[in-house]
Amino acid sequence: MSDRKQSVAYGALVLSVSGFLVKLVGAVFRIPLTNLVGAAAMSYFTSAYSIYVFLLAIATSGLPTGIATMVSRSLALEKYKDVPRIMKIAAMIFVPLGICLALLGFVFAMPLAEAMNSKEAYWSVAAIMPAIICISIVSLFKGFFQGYRNMTPTALSNLIEAIVKLLAGYGIAFILHGRGYPLEIVVGGAVLGVSVSTLVAMLFMTLRYILRGKSYRMPPKELVSDAQTPLKKLTRDFLIISLPLIISSVTANLMSLVDAFVVMNRLKVYLPVEQSKLLWGAYGNMALTIFNLPSFLITAIGMSLIPAVAAAHAKKDHNSILKTSNDTLRFSSILAFGSAFGLNAVSEPVLKLFYPGDPSGVAAATPLLQIISFALIAVGLTNITASILQAVGKTYLPVISVAVGAVIKTVSTLILVSIPSVNVLGAPIATNIAYPVMFIMNIFFIRKQLGFVPEWKNVIFKPLVSGVVCWGAAKLFLMLFEMMLPQRIAIFPAIICAILAYFAFMLIINLVSFNEFKDFLLKRRNNA
Predict the structure, then answer these.
(1) What is the DSSP string of 385-432?
(2) pLDDT in tens, 208-217
(3) Residue 460 contacts residue 336 (beta carbons within 8 Å)
């Protein structure tokens, strides 16, 4: 395989393996930190992270995808001179934007913390702002390599960032806690580790780009014969792709800010402040941390899908677009339904395994995780369908679906959390209401633009039945193994057996063949 091109399947595999390790390291970071400071104090971390993710969405969300799409199109059309110029355009727009947002976030850290109903989060908000600058630069180089369909640098960067975050973040927090600093400063020290980790990731990606191989540098004879695209057109095309992605990402991240602001605000109306912090920490830090562990699988497929479909679209290869999209939706559904039903079945023992030092937090987080686990299906498929639309140049259409979903999510959260008998459960319920609407809208847009409708039998019905089988197998095997082993040990063979049962059932109902599944994951090809 060429060093500079990977198939959708292999790219997804690379990102999935690294994503699993990143999420695992991330959980290892958050879990002992939660055990160190408690779920209530971790609400400071969650509030600061919500602000950071929102600002990061403005600074970088359109960057990797915009560059990857533009680079892959340029390579497909053999316009090699455009590649370095695309990088310069992106750098001139997004790096200054990242610097400005980081400075504003640092200066207004206290008002931002107070707006999240948690002025104690000031230290965390201030400590995380430098990371925005670093990620702006990291995203430039991620987009470059993804445009060449090489997901390995992105995977390594993410893994390096996660490991440094664990070592630096928890290390700083542990030292501060040992010296008796207040919990808000301890958590702020942990968040400082996030900024340190992004600095290391930035240095790695910068060196990787500088030291890139010959396969990323076109031979002189190709450069001589290559006609440049006018700079004005390149800039316009880049903005046409990137700006809708920014709007879409910012709107989606508003959902997290809505959760952080609305949930705490409404809970404090009828609950004590400490109880409100406990419930928000249980949801935002514990339940969502576990929820995010399997979500990277589908995200990885979407990231690998965009450059492949974009290249096919540039060549007007409609059949390739449809085949790649259909196969990707089917495998995404397999992962989404299995993850959702499996996670629902083992929510309580998984939380007990990861958070043994916080039984009250586990008790609060268990029903939250059971509800939010089913959102993996709609969230995953919404991301994949959005990726398809983005890859064929219809980047403004996912903005519409995300905007509608954000309104539904906001209104639903506000109404449900305001009901004392529902309280914090309203947040994950609202997510399960909003994302199916977004998915249906994206399917409508895809049908209108591409004349393509997924094979519902293989995308929804069969994965749904298989997911129910996975749920039953997980419950059954967990009960059997708990008869012989402690629960914290029994959960591992139970999960393995449930996964085997899930895939065995899919083979029986012919949802996927063994050779097809093996090829999708392992086969390396030079074209998508």
Answers:
(1) HHHHHHHTT-THHHHHHHHHHHHHHHHHHHHHHTSTTTGGGHHHHHHH
(2) 999 888 777 7
(3) no
* Non-local CB neighbours of 289 within 8 Å, separated by 6+ positions: 26, 27, 30, 31, 354
Report the candidate in 375, 373, 378, 376 with the shortest Cα–Cα distance to residue 350: 373
**Phi then psi dihedrals of residue 118, to 5 deg:** -155, 80
Mean pLDDT of 246-271: 77
Task: Name the nearest CA neighbour of 6 among 342, 341, 301.
Answer: 301
Which DSSP symbol is given to 214? G
**Is a pLDDT exceeding 80 seen at residue 310?**
no
Query: Distance (Å, rounded) from C-alpha 395 to C-alpha 250?
Result: 14
Q: How many domains does the chain have?
A: 1
Q: What's the mean pLDDT in 438-454?
A: 89
Closest of 2, 51, 72, 33 to residue 392, by C-alpha:
72
- Of residues 510 and 251, more confidence is placed in 510
**Contact yes or no for 25/158 (Cβ under 8 A):** no
State the average pLDDT for the chain.
Answer: 83
> Is 44 exposed, middle or buried, given 0-12, 13-18 or 19+ CB atoms closer than 10 A?
buried
d(CA 397, CA 403): 10
Helix axis angle, 288-314 to 8-37, nearest 10°: 160
Higher per-residue pLDDT: 361 or 226:
361
End-to-end CA distance of the chain: 12
Helix (H) or strand (E) holding 252: helix 231-258
Whether 3 is covered by a domain: the verdict is: no
Q: Helix and strand tally (H, E) in the chain?
A: 25, 0
Whether the pLDDT of residue 1 is over 80: the answer is: no
pLDDT digits (tens, 9 = 90+) for 355-376: 887 788 889 999 999 999 999 9
**Is residue 1, in this structure, part of any structural domain at all?**
no
- Separation of CA 60 from chain center: 14
- Torsion angle of C-alpha atoms 143, 149, 150, 151, degrees rounded to 10: 70
Decide if 238 is inside a domain. yes
User: Residue 283 has what DSSP assignment?
Assistant: I
Instruction: Output the six-digit token pair for 413.
Output: 């959260």
Q: Transcribe 139-184 into DSSP letters.
A: HHHHHHHHHTT--HHHHHHHHHHHHHIIIIIIHHHHHHHHTT--HH
Whether residue 328 is contained in a domain is answered as yes
Mean pLDDT of 247-251: 74
Q: Is the pLDDT of residue 527 over 80?
A: no
pTM: 0.73
Distance (Å, whole) CA 30 – CA 352: 14
* Structural domain range at position 388: 8-522
